[in-house]
Amino acid sequence: MxxxxxxxxxxxxxxxxxxxxxxxxxxLQAQRRSGYSFMAPDTQAIQNDDTANxxxxxxxxxxxxxxxxTGAAGKACADCHDDARTSMKGVAARYPAFDKALGRPVNxxxxxxxxxxxxxxxxxxxxxxxxxxxxxxxxxxxxxxxAISTDVDPQLEPFLARGRxxxxxxxxxxxxxxxxxxxxxxDKRLAGSxxxxxxxxxxxxxxxxxxxxxxxxxxxxxxxxxxxxxAYDYGAPELVELELYLMSRARGMPxxxxxxxx
Amino acid sequence: MASALINVPNKARRGExxxxxxxxxxxxxxxxxxxxxxxxxxxxxITSFVCRYNGVEIFRADLFPAIAxxxxxxxxxVATESGKFDFEWTGDKGFTETASASILVE
Lengths: 262, 106
What we know:
- The structure holds two protein chains of two kinds.
- Chain A is mainly alpha-helical.
- Chain A contains eleven helices and seven strands.
- Chain B has a single domain, classed as Immunoglobulin-like, CATH 2.60.40.10.
- Chain B has a five-stranded mixed beta sheet, with no helix packed on it. In chain B, strands 1-3-6 form a three-stranded antiparallel beta sheet, with no helix packed on it.
């Protein structure tokens, strides 16, 4: 029911967007707003209070995992990285980052799994699994309030450009690009909900709709399905490139992990 | 695994009204959903929450399938004496969790 209604409204908005002679215009620095500022005061209050924010449950789980030994090497994250409060401070604000061995950018979840496989000799955790979300949330929370500074590495340029192209590219049966909503229509509403500017400041975050924590890729995949395009698989290079562009677009904005969204 | 987040003031004046906030980790599966193959996902919810202040029950709530995952329960009480708050959640599939917090009343 809900998705039918959402799609019906999306079609109306799509028709409106297709009819207006707009060209993609990037948001001015002074006009950038976190998704937080679009939320009702009640929802903001959940994020503001660490004892009311359900995302903090995952952060606490992640702290336990950080200290527990796993894999054939019998090592915990903490055995190499010590106290995450110092070693992981600001790290998530720089991801996705270029991985020399792979020759491409990896996001934070992929970095955690690479570390698990290479250094702990453990099996990689599945995308959106409770443990991977918890570890990612714990690591990213150490960057709370840090300014996003992802795209300083010149090696990332071609990937960043591809991410930007994907953001601008119209796709799916509704023939919409990310930019048509999140650059051009962020002051409008879709099915009663605010269309935000799409800045990924608080991932992994707790969505009330999901009733759980979820990654940026989960959010991107549901947005791509929303325009009735075929979503990329979790971990696909295209999604990492899109993450990279979104983070560079949000450059300088403070991290909010674990954020709460409606 | 961490399961509860409790927020009780450390200190209060005698007779002061204090707010207690509790957040419990739980999926709260309603029992009304079906899998892709049509089987019912069995109900798995918290059914009861109790708070005791120095052993005396001061707050109780029954929970139902319409309550969202990770129930957040907040309520007020009067700080009468120093001591301990004990919290207890019980639910389906033998679920039971406890937590406690102490308070200094001056």
